Every structure is written in structure tokens, then in C-alpha cells.
Fold this sequence. Notes:
It contains four helices and four strands; from the N terminus they run H-H-E-H-E-E-H-E. It is an alpha+beta fold. It has a domain at 27-110: Alpha-Beta Plaits, CATH 3.30.70. A four-stranded antiparallel β-sheet has the order 2-3-1-4. A hairpin with a 3-residue loop joins strand 2 (76-78) and strand 3 (82-88). The model is unreliable at 117-121 and 123-131 (pLDDT under 50).
Amino acid sequence: MDIMSGIEEITTRYDELINAINTQLPKVNTKLLLELMPILKEEEAPGYTLQVHIKDNASKDELKNIVLKEWGVVPAFYEHNHAVIEHRVNLQLLKQLNDLGSVESISGSRSGGGRASRGPVLERDDEYPAK
């Protein structure tokens, strides 16, 4: 195999991965999935803070009831149809959220364990600068 065909194979497989992600988990942020997948090889369900945006016309109750029943936690709800869930995450859990009709999009960042996230970050309130 020459160098170019090896590079083409990598590019083709990456495109296939992105296509599979967009097909199976279209509401989940791609950066979150690309960060999570190698971690799942070492850890069954790492801790994440998930940002879940709910459709404007949807009831928050669907999300609240599923998360409470299935995961045993209650999402925190904020303005602009935004929910935050702190929980251990795997692909099955993200698929469950993705498939809810009330959910518009899902992003998140790694939490706990003293490890920094390489994925999406939350918007920070810079009104009070760090000392």
C-alpha cells in the first residue's frame, strides 16, 4: 500500500464515521462524540455535564420524566428551553436522549476526575473575573 492510498483510506473511514454519527445521533454534537468514543474504550461511562436544548413547542416533562425514571436524576432547567444533566454517559444513553421528540440538540463536556474536556465548553459569565 502506498502512502496516498493509506491517506485516502483514513479520509474515507473518517467520512464514514461522521456519516454514521450524523445518521444515528444527529442531535448529538459531533465534537462530544469524538471526545467520548476513545474514553469509552477505557471507562464504561465517564462523567459528563450534558447540555440539552429542547424544541420551542415541546414539553419539558418528557425529558424530565425519562431522565428521572431511567437515570435516577432530575435535569436542571434554565431559560430558553435549556436543560443540564450531570451524569455518567455512554452511547446508549446519548441515543436515548437523541431519540426523544422534545430534544433539539445535545452537547456537553467532561466533568469530574480532574480531567479537562477537549470538547464543547459552556459559555462563561465574565461579569465577575477570576481573582
